[in-house]
Amino acid sequence: MSKTQRQKDLKHYLSSQFPRISLYDLNIIKTLANSPNLRKLRANDAGWLAAVSYIRHNYTNYEQHLTNGLDKDTARFLVAQDIKEKLAEWGMYITMDVLTRPHKSETRANGKLQLPNKKQEIP
After folding, report:
1. CA distance 19 to 119
2. Residue 34 confidence (pLDDT)
């Protein structure tokens, strides 16, 4: 897939999944989704991982939890509600199980990324 097509796919994914995101946050997430460690992923997978990581590190107490000695999985669990609220603010509604799975099982199952790629309504 050409870089141009991936950029179009990324833009489409981010605008459809996060319709109320600020242009500032959107541009940062686009940059993160194009970083070397995410560049080889499909646009929607890279966009999702970049968005959640960006929120985790910039809109939650995740770093403080790590500084206080908590492991990554525990810290991620403790900030999951904050991430969910930020995603809702941006227009994406998900269930908590998407955010509270252990990190390794969240990223790989049967050799493929298992991430949400469309809005999931909260019951």
Report:
1. 11
2. 94
Tokens found for residue 2 = 């050409």
Question: For residue 118, with 0-12 CB atoms within 10 Å meaning exposed, 13-18 middle and 19 or more buried, which class applies?
Answer: exposed
Domain count, the chain: 1
Q: Is residue 113 part of a domain?
A: no
> What are the Cα distances from residue 118, in Å, to 28, 43, 71?
21, 13, 30
Would 59 be classed as within a structural domain? yes
Q: Tell me: the pLDDT tens digits for 50-66? A: 999 999 999 999 999 99
- Report if residue 43 sits inside a domain: yes
Residue 119 lies in a domain: no
Q: What is the mean pLDDT of the chain?
A: 83
**Type of residue found at 113:** L
In this prediction, residue 117 carries a pLDDT of 46
Q: Other CB atoms closer than 10 Å to residue 39's CB: what's the count?
A: 11
Give the gyration radius of the chain's Cα atoms.
14
Structure tokens at 10: 């990324």
> Is residue 28 within 8 Å of residue 54, measured between CB atoms?
yes
